[in-house]
Amino acid sequence: MTVEIGLVGAPSSGKSTFFKAITLKDVKIASYPFTTIEPNEGTAFVTAKCPHVELGVQCNPRNAPCIDGTRFIPIKVWDVAGLVSGAHEGRGRGNAFLEDVMKSRGLIHILDVSGRTNSDGETTEGFDPSETVKMLENELDYWMLEILNRELRSLKNIRVDYDTIIVAMEKRFSGLGIKKIDIEKAISQSSLDVSIPVSMWQDYDILDFISHLRRISKPMVIAANKIDVPGAEENLRRLKEKFDYEIIPCSAEIELALREASERGLIKYIPGASTFEVVGELNEKQKSAMKFIEEFLDKWKSTGVQNVLNTLVFGKLKMKVVYPVEDEVHFSDKKGNVLPDAFLLDENGTALDLAYTIHEDIGKKFIAAIDARTKRRVSADYVLKNGDIISIKTRK
Fold first, then answer.
1. Are 82 and 33 spatial neighbours (Cβ–Cβ below 8 Å)?
2. How confident is the model over 227-274, as pLDDT tens digits?
3. Contact in structure between 186 and 207 (CB atoms under 8 Å)
């Protein structure tokens, strides 16, 4: 199953540019609000060091490309229309697609850190981007609150115990991939007292619970976009003082320029790298642009875009990359392709989980697994480590 992440943000924050940069999929990009009308769906990649370098072999990737020792593992990305204040009440267009993006495992908030667009996507000067962060938090919380309130209305007039409340919440939020453990953790961290009747719950306590539930179940990284614009760095500093999110400075526009130039054969560029190499003929305008980009990379060491993806998937979601093979001696599939696939698994993913990830039938026929590095047999409940190369053994 492919990991899904969602892009959220106010209109004109650079969200469509960010989406196009990481997917190279054609989308509408314009300097006016609500460029995105329908939700966009695409494939992006997180990166990891490929084991073939360590093993001294040459890999033959199938589902995850490898460039100069960097493995690119696919993830699914949702991009929806920009959210504005009042979206949960129907203002703007973003609210219509929140169900799509909120099914994702985690969120990336594309934020215009330059302060040149306000929370409604309107052009301005000196705007405080922290107001947009608060706006987005509120809209997501109130949208989730309405989902919960539909369930609470039926519970207010009857006496229910803790287990009944948990089951009701789990049922209501299951469509968003929110689990029982998330709900219980949010209750324990919030001011909501579930020992009293639902009819006595206060609105601010319910909202406090929802806020905790959102942060627990949908970890978020802030992509401080347009960091190359004057004034953005000071805004970035203030944001880091106000919020405890992971806030990563980036420029989606520069990343898109690099990836498109690479696609056209003008430069050699590996996403996330701090440098690029000119390999084609550039005109004067392109030379000037590349000079500016070179200076940006000298200062920031990368565009930040790949770092945003990796931070969410590996840092916040705590996922790991595992390489399944059939032949543990040669690290290959039955056709001799070395390290053909790379899969993302949860932090506590086991050898049996990997088997089911490859194919349901392989999971059902699982007997054992072999750690290809050590050639040792491991059990179904063996918790995989990041970078493990595993051969699954099945009954005939």
1. yes
2. 999 999 999 999 999 999 999 999 999 999 999 999 999 999 999 999
3. no
Residue 59 counted as domain residue: no
Residue whose C-alpha is closest to residue 119's, from 86, 148, 84, 169: 84
Note the helical H segments in 174-251: 180-189, 203-217, 232-242
Residue 231 in tokens? 């004034």
Domain with 371 in it: 321-394
Q: What residues contact 116, with CB distance under 8 A and at least 6 apart?
A: 123, 124, 125, 127, 226, 229, 231
CA distance to 321, 369, 372, per residue, from 377 (Å): 20, 6, 9
Whether the Cβ atoms of residue 348 and residue 318 lie closer than 8 Å to each other: no
CATH code for position 342:
3.10.20.30
Query: What total number of domains does the chain contain?
Result: 1
**Residue at 108 is within a domain:** no
Residues 6+ apart with CB under 8 A from 85: 91, 119, 120, 135, 138, 139
The segments of the chain whose pLDDT lies below 50 read: 27, 29-36
- Nearest in space to 222 (alpha carbons), one of 197, 203, 248, 202: 248
Residue 134 lies in a domain: no
The two tokens of residue 21 are: 């940069």
Q: Give me the pLDDT at residue 34, please.
A: 46
